[in-house]
Amino acid sequence: MQEVEISTGREDNSVLIVNDEPDQLRLMRSLLNKAGYLVLTADDGVEGLALAKRQRPDLVISDVTMPRMGGLDFCRHLRSDNELKSVPILLISALQKDTETVVAGLRAGADDYLEVPFDSTRLIAKVSRLLERSRLEASYRDLVEQASDVIFTQDLTGRLTSINLAGERFLGRHQDEIIGNSFFALFGVIPESNGFGVAVNRPHDAREFRHQFVARSAAGEDHWLDLILSPIKKLDETIGFRGLARDVTERKRFEDALRDSEERYRLLFESTPQPICVYNEDTLAFLAVNEAATRTYGYTRDEFLSMTINDLRPEEDIPTLMIKNASDPNDLVLSSPWRHQTRDKKTIYVEMTSHPVVFDGKNSKLVIVNDVTERKLLDEKQQRLHTSLQQSAAEWRQTFNAMDFPVLIVDLDGTIKRSNSAAEQIAGLSAEELRSRRVGDLAEHEPWKKAAELIENVRVNAVPLSAEVKDKQTGKTWAITLYHINEFGSTGERVILIAQDISKRAELEASLRQSEMMSLLGSLVAGVAHEVRNPLFGISSILDAFETRFSDRTEYLRYTNVLRDEVGRLTVLMEELLEYGKPFRGELFLVPMEEMISRSIRACLPAAEVAHVTLVSDVEDALPKIRIDRRRLSKVFVNLIENAIQHSPPDGVVRVEATRVIDGGDDWVQCAIKDSGAGILEQDIPKIFEPFFSKRRGGTGLGLAIAHRIMQEHGGKLIAGNNPTGGACMIARFPTPTEGDC
After folding, report:
1. Parallel/antiparallel/unpaired status of strands 89-93 and 59-63
2. Distance from C-alpha of 58 to C-alpha of 55, rounded to nearest angstrom
3. What DSSP string runs through 79-146?
4. Helix orientation angle between 22-34 and 120-146, rounded to the nearest 10 degrees
5. Is 257 in a helix, a strand, or coil?
6. DSSP assignment letter at 656
7. CB neighbour burial string for 116-141, b if at least 16 within 10 angstroms, e if fewer
8. Rounded CA gap, 2 and 185, in Å?
9. Which of 96, 129, 663, 722 has CB 3.0 to 4.6 Å from 101, enough for a Cys bridge?
10. Among residues 327, 306, 463, which one has the least CA distance to residue 387?
11. Rg of the chain's alpha carbons, rounded to an integer?
């Protein structure tokens, strides 16, 4: 079985997984797909080797124990194939966990080893590291092939195993003719000269060796080659040697020229604008410095010649590429230049190029110093800026997601590019699901419907827009604001969409407006009632005197009776106006709900008997007491019960129910008065508590307005509605007193 699964990530990196365990195969394939790699799979080493030869993966992950061909044999076959030998191999096993097996795997050619079970992040990290190392090795091989120096490798017998193009050109032969031959024979080197053969023939004691010799090129010219031979080790065992032979013929001629003309050398050395120094390879002591070096470092020539090259490095430095930031000693940044210290303890950054020379008969190094302090400080500044930008981006993301209201970044077509957590929660979709969707497609209700309309306007007018909209389905009020941004980097124009749930604020504003209006209206009607009461009292007194004076004139009775009824109606109206405008004194006492309901029902029994309506009380046991003004609240209950009686048909029933409810997270004591009449028209419910609104003939329209105002004074609510089975339902809701109020 072979399978190729393509991801949408780094498709330039392909990974071949060879494993006969289906569960492990699926797990690793899923993890690597999610990480963005192209995945190839095979069940055993035979199938994996065939697939590797066809597809040439960038990395191979192989199980150790498999049928037909195990992981170790599979590694050896890969390493013996010229086209696949450089592919990195990661061995994975749940059965073989001993050190001996790990060593055997590495000897067979594996680059790393991972035991099962494994952490998914560790697998991804190892794959990423091996691929990065493979890329670096590939780059190194390219550099080797393009290098002008002869670079080669040889085994412990002295036979070449690889050589680059520079070596082929020098010898005038193709690589196939060179590989397997002795380096000594090809380059005409006497093995015993200068200890060369000794270094090669003692692999257990092998170390880097250097030798200069003359070799004849394919063109028949003699060239001085500077050879550096270093051991290749694996698991602390020397398995071969790596050599670099640099053509130093020109340098030799230059050295000869320097020896022939000391004055010319001194002139060239001293006139170079870059600092140059020569130091002894063994003692590291300075042997010569030019004028530019003395200017750069501040030491005199004599001071230099009494120092070693290590004296230029700060004492706290260690042999590493990690150095301390120049402006913040606690902030470590990665740097490749060296740090040097001048005579006045000033730190400078330098890059050095060194060449081996023989100076006064000693093996030495000629060092050319390039002062890169300004560039280095600029790089570090850019690094700090980059770190700061990353931190700012992280803080911005945290702030963005911490907002408790939806925020979206969309393009001018309404397509969502980014969303915060609140937006995802309101929309009921994840960030990935929201991305690339249009705002208008999220839902038919608000705030998305109105937001889509505003985006169209922003695209046309390119100015900030805002609007408030109420969602009929949820009853929420939304404040929608759009900001047009036309400087959004290289991503084009964008719109920032903010939707805030202002339902509570809208309710509060409406309540404040109503309270202010009711307060003003109360003051007005109280004043009017006060002014009318005195003339009304005068009219009533004159009517009394008139009836007394003409009591024997029966023809006047029909007029006086009409006047008496109208005076009575005006008197009731004035009393209600005065009650509506009466200020609240705040004298509240804890009273059982059952007591208030009983008193109110007793007060309304005569009216119920006249109307042939039955009053029924249903009070829940153990209700908390409510904090009220008995006289003021009696008007509320009596008014509501009398209203219910008036709107109920003969032989109807008015129910008074008291319960404890939870609404909006708050605890309430609720009294519901339900009649059996026709109910309240839907269009009348919003206006039913307005002063002077009445649908009953002869009504003043102040009864429910007074009741509503008294409930507000008690911190409660008066809610108008209809019963599901018919008839009106008026609900008086009181807050439950806290322990401190009891």
Report:
1. parallel
2. 9
3. HHSTTTTTS-EEEEESS--SHHHHHHHHHTT-SEEEESS--HHHHHHHHHHHHHHHHHHHHHHHHHHH
4. 70
5. helix
6. E
7. bebeeeebbebbeebbeebeeeeeee
8. 49
9. 96
10. 327
11. 49
Task: Quote the tokens at residue 415.
Answer: 């397509």
Q: How far apart are CA 663 and CA 619, in angstroms?
A: 19
Q: What is the pLDDT of residue 16?
A: 92
Contact, 625 vs 665, CB < 8 A?
no
pLDDT tens digits for range 367-376:
888 888 888 8
pLDDT for residue 84: 83
Go through the chain and tell me how many residues it has. Answer: 742
Q: Parallel, antiparallel, or unpaired: how do β-strands 465-470 and 477-485 relate?
A: antiparallel
Chain centroid to CA 681 = 52
State the amino acid at position 281 in one-letter form.
Answer: E
The pairing of beta strand 89-93 with beta strand 112-115: parallel
User: Per residue in 84-137, pLDDT tens?
Assistant: 878 888 888 765 456 676 777 777 778 888 887 877 888 888 888 888 887 877
Backbone angles phi, psi at 437, to 5 degrees: -85, 155
What tokens were used for 688? 């039913």
In the three-class reduction of DSSP (H, G, I as helix; E, B as strand; rest coil), residue 239 is classed as strand
For the chain, the helix, strand and coil percentages under 3-state DSSP, each to the nearest 5:
45, 25, 30
Alpha helices by DSSP H, 213-261: 249-260
Judge whether 75 and 18 are in contact, CB under 8 Å. Answer: no
Distance CA 211, CA 196 (A): 7
CA distances from 499 to 416, 467, 560, 681 (A): 14, 10, 66, 34
Q: Side chain identity at 240, as an amino acid letter? A: G
Intervals of the chain under pLDDT 50: 1-10, 96, 318-335, 489-490
Task: Kindly report whether the global pTM for this prediction surpasses the value 0.90.
Answer: no
**For residues 171 and 184, what is the distance between their CA atoms, to the nearest angstrom?**
13
User: Identity (one letter) of the amino acid at 266?
Assistant: R
Instruction: Single out the residue of 31, 161, 170, 8 nearest to residue 92, CA to CA.
Output: 31
CA angle 541, 543, 546 (to 5 degrees): 110
Asked if 89 and 72 count as a contact pair (C-beta separation under 8 A), the reply is no
Q: Is the dihedral of CA 47, 49, 53, 59 positive or negative?
A: positive
Distances (CA, A) of 705 to 117, 588, 639, 654: 75, 21, 10, 21
Rounded CA-CA distance 221/217 in Å is 5
Sheet strands (E) in 312-383? 322-324, 332-334, 338-341, 347-359, 362-371
